[in-house]
Amino acid sequence: MAILTETTEGPLVLSVDQVEEIGRELDALRARITADLGDRDREYIYQVIKAQRGFEIAGRGLLYLGFLPPFWLAGVAALSVSKILDNMEIGHNVMHGQWDWMREPTLNSRVFEWDTVCPSDQWRHSHNYMHHTYTNILGMDRDIGYGILRVDEAQSWNVLRLGNPFYAFLLMVAFEWGVMGHDLEVENIIRGKKSWRQVKTLLEGQWRKAGRQVLKDYVVFPALTGPLFVSTLAANFTANIVRNLWTFSIIFCGHFPIGVQTFTQEECAEETQGQWYVRQMLGSANITGSKLFHIMSGNLSHQIEHHLFPDLPANRYPEIAPEVKALCEKHGLPYNTGRFARQIGSVWAKLFKLALPPFLVKNSAPAGVIVMRRGQASEVGV
Question: Matching CDD domains, A to Z (predicted)?
Answer without folding.
Answer: Delta6-FADS-like
